[in-house]
Amino acid sequence: MKKDGIIKALKDIVGNDFASNEPEHLYIYSQDPGASLPRPVDFVVLPKTTEELQEIVKLANEEKIPITPMGGGLTLSGLVIPVKGGIVIDLKRMDQIIEINRYSRYALIEAGVTTGKLLSHLKENYPDLEPPIPDAPPSATVAGNVLIHGSGYLSQKYGDQGAMVNGLEVVLPNGDNAKLGSCALSNYWFAKGPIPDMIGLFLSSFGTMGIVTKLSLQLQPKPKCRDIVFGLMKDPNNIPELLYQITATDLAEDVLLGMQDKPDWMKGYVFVMTYITAEKKEDLDPQVKLFKRLYRKAGANYMKAPKKMQDLYLQKPIFAAGAADYRKGGGFEYVGANMPLEKIPEAYIKGAEVSRKFGIPPTLGSRLIGGTHNIVMFFSYSFNRADPDDMENARSALEETNKLALELGGIPWKAELGAQKQILKKMDPNYKKLFFRIRNLLDPNGIMNPGNWEEV
Length: 456
Ligand SMILES: Cc1cc2nc3c(=O)[nH]c(=O)nc-3n(C[C@H](O)[C@H](O)[C@H](O)COP(=O)(O)OP(=O)(O)OC[C@H]3O[C@@H](n4cnc5c(N)ncnc54)[C@H](O)[C@@H]3O)c2cc1C
Known about the structure:
Layout: H1 3-14, E1 19-20, H2 23-26, E2 43-45, H3 50-63, E3 67-70, E4 87-90, E5 97-101, E6 106-110, H4 115-125, E7 129-130, H5 142-146, H6 155-158, E8 165-171, E9 177-181, E10 211-218, E11 220-221, E12 225-233, H7 239-248, E13 252-260, E14 270-278, H8 284-297, E15 300-303, H9 307-314, H10 321-324, E16 330-339, H11 344-357, E17 363-369, E18 374-384, H12 388-407, E19 411-413, H13 417-426, H14 429-442
Parallel strand pairs: 2-4, 3-4
Antiparallel strand pairs: 1-2, 5-6, 6-10, 7-11, 8-9, 8-10, 12-14, 12-15, 13-14, 13-17, 16-18, 16-19, 17-18
Helix pairs in contact: 1-3, 11-12, 12-13
Bound molecules: flavin-adenine dinucleotide (FAD).
């Protein structure tokens, strides 16, 4: 079918206003806020229902047109910029909060629900519950975050957001609509099993296995009070023992670390922020005392968190974009990498060396995930979007950082194309074989976000 026929067929499915191949509409879908170069898009379509989505997928299969699902498009690593053109399926119109189950503590939502929408819905209607969402802009979708193993202020206690999924409804590459988890047999989306667990196939596969239309996500009890115990340490080598001790208390809600050259007073230190919670304010004091002792033992100085920081960080979740754009060039991207805790000191030291090598002031951070079982490291690079050389420089720094993360035994997170290649190169061959066999079985025409997770 020619382009005219395809746009007509898409409009027949979703209505005239929600499909386009006009250059002015496609422009925004050909790029993202990160350092990736723009890539062309042929069509954009915004379905409202699962049935419309199924028809779009069937059409794409018949015509062998690539499709790329998109939530907020905010990963920064170019994951929603099509590699081989085709149709971007923008899911933002599928934005219904279907159910909040208070006793089983989950939210059943459509894939286009943004983190901002879910958060305000709970604040207004269920103030004793909170959702696992990232510190990303509120226009990021809950699904987009969950589907990349995102993390946020609840991850230290409960694991990454992928660990908090109870169930998915997915449109498979042939157009079938499958329910995964307890929802496959029950009206209650309360658990993943106990049945063979296939939910993991759809996480961090970047839309190559299917398109999620609904998901159930665990909610957690919301504490009444919060405080931050803030510390500064000179020697990154003390980080693993300190974090081991902090998590052994079972009192920390969230633990964030960072090392940055700006503002000047932070240069040369690693900062540690442990979030503590309680039902009453006075119950926070003994916890502060306990953590002060632990900090001191690990060679870190306790410091009253500056007022500005308290204001910013205690309004959880924070929206980090303002802090990210400190060079005012409008460009910011980071390599996230999940790492074993014992390699974190090296990650800070070598990560800062990479930044300096590329002339970018080091801005490194990390967050514990599920106790000390996992820690996600952020190597951030800001750049001036108006300067192509500066953007190329950031891309080179990202490439070298991905290499470093893999050398240290970590795994680049929400990996952009270059990082995906590095991961596949290092991966156990039989893991790879299994992955590609499943993918080819599900998607024999290779229409699902092609170019991602592909060997060249
Ligand atoms: C300032 C800033 C701060 C950030 N802080 C954090 C943070 O604290 N924690 C964190 O985890 N992330 C963070 N991020 C990264 C990112 O913004 C978030 O992870 C965000 O939630 C991604 O959601 P999205 O809707 O933008 O996903 P998208 O970019 O739209 O999609 C992500 C991936 O999932 C696929 N996808 C999307 N929807 C579907 C679907 N329905 N079915 C199948 N595949 C789908 C896409 O094809 C893509 O591969 C931050 C980003 C910025 C800019």
